[in-house]
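Q: Could you fold this chain for me?
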Amino acid sequence: MRIYTQNSCNFCKKSKELLQSHNIEYTEINIEESAYGKKFLKDFGYKTVPQIWTDDGAHIGGYEELVEHLSQKRKSSILDSDMNISVMRDAAFYKKPQ
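A: Sure. Below is the predicted structure, expressed as structure tokens.
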């Protein structure tokens, strides 16, 4: 993930802590230290930080959107896990006699 931040930003800090707690690697671009980062956000009309993107370039948004994104990702992972268990269970149940 890529996260645009600035100094003294509580939501930036919370976003980084949340990513770390989920063991998600990220690249931080501090707009107070990066002219490119500041220009990038300005050119696309973003006026607040944090602004967060996935590795494939999808814009997540800020802290609250990150919380929702990770929640949805977790739910999807749980559903995938449940589906695999159901498929395995059903396959065993419907095993053809030999």
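A (continued): The longest strand covers residues 2-5.
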